[in-house]
Automatic annotation (TrEMBL), chain A:
<keyword id="KW-0223">Dioxygenase</keyword>
<dbReference type="InterPro" id="IPR000391">
    <property type="entry name" value="Rng_hydr_dOase-bsu"/>
</dbReference>
<dbReference type="InterPro" id="IPR032710">
    <property type="entry name" value="NTF2-like_dom_sf"/>
</dbReference>
<dbReference type="GO" id="GO:0051213">
    <property type="term" value="F:dioxygenase activity"/>
</dbReference>
<protein>
    <submittedName>
        <fullName>3-phenylpropionate/cinnamic acid dioxygenase, small subunit</fullName>
    </submittedName>
</protein>
<comment type="pathway">
    <text>Aromatic compound metabolism.</text>
</comment>
<comment type="similarity">
    <text>Belongs to the bacterial ring-hydroxylating dioxygenase beta subunit family.</text>
</comment>
<keyword id="KW-0560">Oxidoreductase</keyword>
<keyword id="KW-0058">Aromatic hydrocarbons catabolism</keyword>
TrEMBL record, chain B:
<dbReference type="Pfam" id="PF00355">
    <property type="entry name" value="Rieske"/>
</dbReference>
<dbReference type="Pfam" id="PF00848">
    <property type="entry name" value="Ring_hydroxyl_A"/>
</dbReference>
<keyword id="KW-0560">Oxidoreductase</keyword>
<protein>
    <submittedName>
        <fullName>Ring hydroxylating alpha subunit (Catalytic domain)</fullName>
    </submittedName>
</protein>
<keyword id="KW-0411">Iron-sulfur</keyword>
<dbReference type="InterPro" id="IPR001663">
    <property type="entry name" value="Rng_hydr_dOase-A"/>
</dbReference>
<keyword id="KW-0408">Iron</keyword>
<dbReference type="InterPro" id="IPR017941">
    <property type="entry name" value="Rieske_2Fe-2S"/>
</dbReference>
<keyword id="KW-0479">Metal-binding</keyword>
Length: 160, 429
């Protein structure tokens, strides 16, 4: 197993890379970061971990991710056209599990969105399940635990 | 006295702002009218507070609002339902802040007064200081009138109002049809999405009986569907209709073939439900049951609007709460079947996530349109909002109600007629 410092650097680099893609709307490249079985999950209930048997804000398999990206890119969605930009800060990265087949990491995120001239902030804990490959990490699961997941959110037309 | 006259002028004004085919934009933006609506509409009629499956056992509770007033829906040890004002009788703190749960008592955090699930005051620290001052039996949490229909729980502050079933009237038949989507199992709440939008509550009230917007606002959702499903959602030229059911209620039938989910069970299974059907077979369900569950998984082909705060909207409850004149909170409550196969309830949740809630493929675009309506309400000093679509093409329904085309604004006119009636109440005095 690699030294923790080296792994932490690799994981941090990957998280920063993914965040940069999403803030700069590099959605097609973002799609290629995923394994075929990967799940992008934004829970509505932070007490639940059985995501498949729980109602989530989003639970996207490969098909849903592709459709979500198409919705953001094809110009048909009036709300997607109204999103100005997002800037997200990723920090407090910690590797929770470091296996040869899977690496689990957690970090803090503060995502800022400008919409209709108003700034909206989304603080969250983000959990990554990463699959090491010869081509670098692939996303097997990403769970975005919004601090106010069970409150009344504004509508979201970007990807956390 | 001068204050009283001023109030009367405002109420006269609000009621006069509703005409048969148009409503004045100030109804969305005038804070004085909003205060009056809380009093004359929300505090004065049957308001939806939840579904029985959200409080399944003795001791279950959930918190809710009627207008701005916090209430608790609870089930006592004898399984009776109560709706209680969430306010301690002593110094007025809320006695419950959890969204839902199970408890033996509601205890005020300030001085420890403890109330039973039926609201009765059970115990308080150092009670001797109240000897001869008041009797504990006279100090329960204030309770509201509660009645249910098909598991839907409504409460009202108005003790003089007609029974719930009379108020629902012509809507009851449609609630019965809506509740068939458990696929042979009792309908159960599976979870909910919550979001808010910077706009007036009536913009949401109108939206659930507005088929006209669907192909425009939800183009990106329709694009994400397979061809056969997209055809089903192409309903503006179909045989659908909007029917005014009285008392502000209306039904908008978009997909007539999905009105009664227990009919047409011999239809072939659509492509998008093939994997659900297989999962149900794998769970050992007979072919007849598979067909029934798959058909129920669609949800119904109609939106039933119940004035003033809930819509039975195809496959879910859409509940609105007015927060201020320019802010509204909305819950999208996902439904499934109590005891239904895992694959069925999972599919229902995935379909809900696809369109509904703050991250669905539909809701954010609705929210964008509603926000624009609220902004637009500030333009000019004397603008009107049109609700006259389809007034030239009305007919009488089978049940003897006024009905119009699926993309008519018949339902909005029905809701505004009830609104006008309630806002004008008391003026003749």
């Amino acid at each position: 197993m690699k030294s923790n410092t080296e792994l932490l650097a690799q994981v941090t680099e990957f998280i920063g890379y993914e965040a940069d893609l999403l803030d700069h709307k590099g959605y097609q490249e973002w799609l290629s970061l995923w394994t075929d079985s990967g799940l992008y999950i934004v829970p509505a209930d932070l007490n639940e971990t059985d995501y498949l048997n729980t109602l989530n804000l989003a639970l996207d398999d490969a098909d849903m991710r592709r459709m979500r990206v198409a919705r953001l890119e094809n110009g048909e969605s009036v709300s997607a056209l109204s999103v100005g930009n997002t800037v997200r800060m990723m920090s407090r990265v910690r590797v929770l599990e470091a296996g040869d087949d899977v690496v689990i990491a957690r970090c803090a995120m503060t995502l800022n969105e400008l919409r209709h001239g108003k700034l909206v902030t989304y603080p969250a804990n983000v959990e990554y399940t990463l699959k090491p490959t010869s081509d670098g990490f692939k996303l097997e699961q990403k769970v975005v635990k919004l601090l106010h997941a069970d409150g009344f959110l504004r509508t979201v037309s970007f990807i956390f | 006295m001068s204050e009283l006259i001023e109030m009367q002028n405002i109420s006269l004004k609000a009621a006069e702002m509703v005409e048969e085919g148009r409503v004045h934009k100030d109804l969305y933006s005038n804070p004085e009218i909003f205060e009056e609506e809380l009093d004359k509409v929300f505090n004065n009629t049957w308001v939806f507070v939840g579904h029985e499956s959200e409080v399944p056992e003795a001791g279950s509770f959930k918190t809710a609002y009627i207008g701005r007033q916090p209430v608790i829906l609870s089930r006592d040890r004898k399984m009776n339902l109560h709706v209680l004002q969430n306010r301690c009788r002593h110094r007025g703190a809320t006695v419950c802040e959890a969204r839902k749960g199970k408890t033996k008592a509601f205890t005020c955090p300030y001085h420890g007064w403890g109330y039973g699930l039926d609201g009765s005051l059970r115990a308080l620290p150092k009670p001797e200081e109240y000897d001869g001052v008041f009797d504990k039996n006279d100090m329960p949490l204030e309770s509201l009138r509660v009645e249910t229909y098909q598991g839907m729980v409504f409460a009202t502050f108005n003790d003089g109002i007609e029974p719930l079933e009379d108020f629902l009237g012509g809507a009851k038949k449609w609630i019965d049809l809506f509740m068939k989507q458990g696929g042979g199992y009792p309908v159960k709440v599976l979870g909910e999405h919550r979001f808010n939008f910077p706009g007036n509550w009536k913009i949401q009230l109108e939206n659930t009986t507005d088929a006209y917007h669907f192909p425009i606002v939800h183009k990106s959702f329709v694009s994400s569907l397979d061809e056969a499903t997209a055809d089903i959602f192409d309903f503006l030229d179909g045989e659908g209709f909007v029917e005014d059911l009285g008392n502000g209620h209306s039904v908008m039938v978009m997909i007539p073939q999905l009105v009664d989910l227990e009919e047409d069970l011999d239809q072939p299974i659509p492509e998008r439900f093939a994997s659900l059907a297989q999962a149900l077979r794998d769970e050992g369900k007979s072919e007849d049951e598979v067909k029934k569950l798959v058909r129920a998984a669609h949800g119904t082909g109609f939106n039933l609007n119940l004035f003033p705060n809930v819509s039975c909207s195809m496959a879910f409850f859409r509940v609105l709460r007015p927060v201020s004149v320019g802010e509204t909170e909305i819950q999208h409550v996902a439904l499934g079947g109590e005891g239904a196969p895992t694959a069925f309830n999972r599919k229902r949740m995935r379909l809900h996530e696809h369109f509904q809630g703050p991250m669905g493929f539909g809701t954010p675009d609705d929210g964008e349109a509603w926000e624009r309506v609220q902004k637009g309400a500030m333009a000019g000093t004397d603008g009107w909002i049109l609700v006259n679509r389809g007034m030239n093409n009305l007919h009488e329904s089978k049940d003897g109600n006024v009905a119009g085309a699926v993309c008519s604004e018949t339902g909005m006119r029905g809701a505004y007629r009830q609104y006008k009636k309630m806002m004008a109440a008391g003026e003749e005095k």
